[in-house]
Amino acid sequence: NVHASALAEAHLPDEQTTAFAREAIEQLSQQPKKLSPKYFYDATGSELFEAITRLPEYYPTRTELSILKERGSEIAKIIPENAALVEFGAGSTTKVRLLLNQAKFAAYVPVDISGDFLQAQANGLKRDFPSLGIYPVAADFTTPFELPKAVASMPKVGFFPGSTIGNFEPHEAQAFLRSARQILGQGAQMIIGADLEKEERLLHAAYNDAAGITARFNLNVLVRINRELGGNFDLSAFTHGAIYNHDRHRIEMHLISKKSQTVRLLGTSFSFRPGESIHTENSYKYSLERFAALARGAGWRVRESWTDAAKMFSVHALEV
Ligand code: AVJ
Q1: Residue 4 pLDDT > 60, yes or no?
Q2: CA distance linking residue 231 with residue 131, whole number of Å
Q3: What is the pTM of this model?
Q4: 283 Cβ inside 6 Å of ligand 1
Q5: Is the C-beta atom of 214 inside 6 A of ligand 1?
Q6: Which letter, b or e, does each residue of 11-49 get, where b requires 16 or more Cβ atoms within 10 Å of its Cβ?
Q7: Nearest CA to ligand 1 atom 5
């Protein structure tokens, strides 16, 4: 079995690597070729993303933080006392700390596929919020999961910051919101960040930064394929490109082949034409109206929406 022996040579034939291998081969076999954005985030990719959030051109992170800070007391006002805060995906704790400082939560439930990340996060928060019950759930938050019994009787507040919802196709975003409503149950609320549609020049700059960090972030998926799956992508033969697709309201990230070339991965050959792309990410941008329609379609009502003065980013409070 060619695939199995090639994987063994890569020294990482664990379950996650096998899933990565299967999906990478399947997605690179599609026309147009693609790779899922979830594969950006190994240790290097997570560091590169952190670096992106500090770029002058990349407004989303700092704008969302400023909204959460400035509107903190308004957000706290609509949150019931002693609720459980359920965060979908566990990144840095900066944003959740803002909410925990503003409102009196009884419990925090970070949900993430990576157990290591969850533990590190829980330890740090426990020190600063000693009376907070922390109940990490290791799960893929895009599929149904059970909340810990300890929070069963508490009001639930979902938290999905960072415009991560923008990575989903609109129908997937709606399915996620519907699933979140079911998981959180009766009387739930949700605080969710969504990037706003804006002048193309600003979007283009945010995803094609002058320092080239986004390019390294994008190319990192090929670095991972080479290292973890034994691929032979020539990194110098692909360039990063991000374009705004007006009709579909989304930034698209691509890795574009500079020349005619063939790449081998686990016994399979993938041929590239000059200029042929691997579509690596969509980042959907919503107007306030289109986001509200999306939420309504998933059984939520928008209770309030906050933006910064320049209308770069939005934070929505949803209720069932
Ligand atoms: C983490 C999905 C919100 O879409 O802006 C940043 C990822 N991609 N630069 C985004 C990303 C390129 C980011 N999200």
Answers
A1: no
A2: 48
A3: 0.93
A4: yes
A5: yes
A6: ebeeeeeeebbeebbebbeeeebbbebebbbbeebbebb
A7: 283
**For residue 283, how far is its CA from the centre of ligand 1 (angstroms)?**
7
Q: Is 52 in the pocket of ligand 1 (CB under 6 A)?
A: yes
At 1 the pLDDT is 47
Determine if ligand 1 sits within 6 Å of the CB of residue 46: no
State which of 40, 48, 49, 314 you would mutate to test the pocket of ligand 1, scoring each by most atoms of that ligand within 8 A of its C-beta.
49
144 CB burial (10 A radius; 0-12, 13-18, 19+): exposed
Give the whole-number percent of the chain exceeding pLDDT 90.
85
For residues 194 and 316, is the Cβ–Cβ distance under 8 A?
A: yes
Residue type present at position 69:
K
Number of neighbouring beta carbons within 10 Å of residue 208: 17
